[in-house]
Amino acid sequence: MTTSFAPEIDLIPQLQCETDTGIATLPLSQEVSFRSWQQSIPQEYWDLGAEELVARIRAARAALGTRVVVLGHHYQREDIIQFADERGDSFALAQYAAERPEAEYIVFCGVHFMAEAADILCAPHQQVILPNVEAGCSMADMASDPDVRSAWRELGDYFGGTDDIIPVTYMNSAASLKAFCGEHGGVVCTSSNARQVLEWAFARGKRVFFFPDQHLGRNTADAMGIPLEEMALWNWRGPAGRLGGLAGEQLDRARVILWQGHCSVHQRFSVTQIEAARKQFPGVQIVVHPECRYDVVQAADANGSTAYIARYVEQAPAGSIIGIGTEINLVSRLAKEHPDKTIFCLDPVVCPCSTMYRVHPAYLAWVMEGLVRGEVHNRIEVPAETKRYAKIALERMLALK
Ligand code: SF4
Fold first, then answer.
1. How many CA atoms, within 13 angstroms, populate the side-chain half-sphere of residue 382?
2. Which of 10, 112, 129, 199 has its CA 20 to 30 A from that of 89?
3. Radius of gyration of the chain from Cα atoms?
4. Residue 284, C-beta contacts closer than 8 angstroms, at least 6 positions apart
């Protein structure tokens, strides 16, 4: 049973999503936000309906054979995921592509940082393509390379050096920040291995500088027994030179310095939603992603990565009622795949990730048909020097297995 949970609260209109009306395929030109998506797609694709798009993508897929691999992130819409050779989280998908050297083209249906990660891990002869170059990630965008480097300099000035600070970036960050970590003795983490990565970091330094997601950093450090008073929140929005708005004593006792970034999708989940779900469905199990706020993770029965959430649902006995705090496309898919369980999204507005949603089938048709003609549109290429250092940070993470 698929249901969105609607507790007795008034929805705040500005929180409503452009896709609240449903996530069926509309022609590109009818999408409310198309104006802010990639416009440089030929007009012949603008008005194509679902049936024609499906037929054209399938035909291009067949013509390309093993020369192309189509990857679909868990949060992609159904009308995209149906074409994916593999679906998963960003890191698993990048690894999948790297293990298929016969594929010249990797079409990554996800967001920008994911395509960059695939380009870092793939062989030089493989070209990574992002169907809509406007598909970014609002969380990754909260940590820019200049802002992080400026904060690092300030931390170095304050502490008299950075030897004791280990930078850790979440997978959901620009390639340049992965490179920054590679260059400065740091590492990349995913939501599956964040704890293991922090343990690695604390074996090498006194403090961790964690970006861009404050919530993953805080929830992970808390699970390791680090008190909240030993975590400091770096406000990157304020003027430079003010130590992220932190007082000296806050920095002195901080073991984890958290970047003030968040995921706009996961930050929507609240304790009120969990309480309402428990009231309506006694016995409900609540599982949320660690990108959710601290109080939400505390109020849930379990938390973990998308892979963990999928496993949690799979392993629950038939008849279970499970409320989930993560992106709606994954929740809906899990509900469909487990009809013997009641699966619902905790968010009453059930808004999908609006940047993932930008990968409309028209863009997929355009890039795939281009490849059939030998034209590569929307290649994502990480500069060689950035790639070299980013790979070092990723390899440090891989070595933890
Ligand atoms: S769900 Fe959140 S972290 Fe993931 S791509 Fe969307 S905005 Fe970024």
1. 28
2. 199
3. 21
4. 277, 278, 321, 322, 323
Running along the chain, 401 residues long, what does each successive block of 10 average in pLDDT? 37 37 78 93 97 97 97 94 94 90 96 96 96 96 97 98 98 98 98 96 98 98 98 94 96 98 95 97 97 98 96 98 95 95 88 90 98 98 98 94 66
Task: For ligand 1, say whether the CB of 355 is within 6 Å of any of its atoms.
Answer: yes
Cβ–Cβ under 8 Å, residues 344 and 280: no
Residues in contact with 131: Cβ distance below 8 Å, sequence separation at least 6, in sequence order = 107, 109, 359, 363, 364, 366, 367, 378
Q: Ligand 1 mean position to 266 CA, how many Å?
A: 8
Cβ contact 277:7 at 8 Å: yes
- Entry field: residues in the chain: 401
Residue 264: DSSP 8-state:
T
Compute, in angstroms, the gap from residue 140 CA to the centroid of ligand 1.
Answer: 8
Token output for 357: 């949603």
- 8 Å CB contact between 97 and 103: yes
State whether the beta carbon of 269 lies less than 6 angstroms from ligand 1: no
CA distances from 343 to 3, 19, 338 (A): 7, 21, 8
Burial label, 301 (beta-carbon count in 10 A; 0-12, 13-18, 19+): middle
* Extended beta strands in 74-162, E state: 86-88, 105-109, 127-129
- Note the maximum CA span of the chain: 63
Whole-structure pTM value = 0.91
**Dist. CA 132 → ligand 1 center (Å):** 15
Q: Is the C-beta atom of 327 inside 6 A of ligand 1?
A: yes
**Phi, psi for residue 14 in degrees, rounded to 5:** -70, -15
End-to-end CA distance of the chain: 37
SS3 assignment, position 127: strand
In the numeric block, which tokens belong to residue 316? 């629950």
243-251 long-range CB contacts below 8 Å, 24 or more apart? 243/154, 243/155, 243/158, 244/151, 244/154, 248/158, 251/155, 251/158, 251/159
